[in-house]
Write a structure and sequence with these properties.
about 190 residues; Dihydrofolate Reductase, subunit A; 5-stranded mixed beta sheet; 4-stranded parallel beta sheet; 11 strands; binds folic acid; DHFR_dom; dihydrofolate reductase activity
């Protein structure tokens, strides 16, 4: 899972992100695109999202380039969007099972929103939460689910860099007048 959440665990309002954080969006883009060195050049990662998150991505940015865009929806029809980088599944479980067996897909990133995060956080397949914590209160109408401390623990910065595959700024950062931090939670086996 990859997400950005405010102090009050908000992730969105009016089908938009509550903040503008260029450096975090760039981190999201690099991280979700990155293919680990040993992998061949025909694979890409999957960005798995709910229908509302899909609709929240600005038209000029969707489908997210160099990633397989996976939308979970029971109402969208395959015919509605014809793009090689786009697939629809009717459930998160079905998507995970199917994509795990695909040689064309490397990592699976669950990118939201609330409903899909909530399902993913209870799925044993979901091991990491790459969380950007925005240290500010925001009025929001959608929220990240509670991270049960018995199920997930914060890991070290070294492990974060290993998982992300690049050097990551450590500690509180400032962008656009907001403090935020790149964190990694790992499922406790
Ligand atoms: N994770 C993190 N760390 N920050 C986020 O803002 C975030 N947002 C989502 C999921 N995980 C996140 C869901 N919302 C785009 C827009 C909204 C969105 C996710 C992605 C998007 O347009 N991304 C483009 C880059 C856009 C830009 O440069 O402004 C991309 O190619 O990834």
């Amino acid at each position: 899972m990859i997400a950005a959440a405010s102090l009050n665990w908000g992730i969105g309002i009016n089908n938009k992100l509550p903040w503008k954080l260029k450096s975090d969006m760039a981190y999201f883009e690099r991280t979700s695109k990155r293919i680990l060195p040993i992998e061949d050049n025909k694979v890409q990662n999957a960005a798995i999202m709910g229908r509302k998150t899909w609709e929240s991505i600005p038209l000029k940015f969707r489908p997210l380039q160099n990633r397989l865009n996976v939308v979970i929806s029971k109402s969208l029809k395959k015919e509605e969007i014809i793009d090689a980088n786009f697939v629809i599944y009717s459930s998160l479980d079905e998507a995970i099972t199917d994509l795990s067996n695909s040689s064309k897909v490397s990592r699976l990133f669950v990118i939201g929103g609330s409903q899909i995060y909530k399902e993913a956080i209870t799925s044993p397949n979901c091991v990491y939460i790459l969380l950007t914590r925005v240290y500010k209160f925001f009025e929001c109408d959608t929220f990240f689910p509670e991270i049960n401390e018995k199920m997930f623990s914060l890991t070290t910065h070294e492990e974060l860099e290993e998982v992300v595959g690049e050097q990551v700024p450590k500690g509180r950062q400032v962008d656009n007048g907001m403090e935020y931090e790149f964190l990694l939670y790992k499922r406790i086996i």
